[in-house]
Amino acid sequence: MHRPGGLFPVRFPFPVNVPCTSPCLARFDHLGRVSARTSISNTASAQEQATWRVNGGAPLISQSATQNGAYDRQLTATVWSFTGSTNTVDASGSVTIPSTSGFASAFVANGYAQAIRGQLSCPSIPAVGIGRVSDYGTTQGGSQPLSLYLSIWSFLY
């Protein structure tokens, strides 16, 4: 223990065991959505790709689009855990325009939405509420930001 004058040991008369996990399972419902579109003209090229994973596992969604392509994919998953749960979206895009092409153009845009709804399942303690967390973002314009937000809203509530 730190006190004025230095550090002083604190002795416990018996070992202290503190569990690092809950004695009860929790249910975690996950939502993942990825979207993108690419556009090119003349000799340009464009590529966009995205993945969505739960708890760092294999991608549950893996999408890609090239040239004048697009995707919009949504999926849900449920896991049970004593400790917690995560999901991850990874997305990237690129365009290439040759320096010899004066009239070529390329464009990529993407978006994502992810959410987790968690609820403890433990008969030994009083019921607690549902925990909710979400995130979304997009470089796509038009109605896509609202569409992503509404995906989250309808999933969580």
From TrEMBL:
Lineage top rank: taxon: Bacteria
Name this protein carries in UniProt: Uncharacterized protein
Organism of origin: Corallococcus exercitus
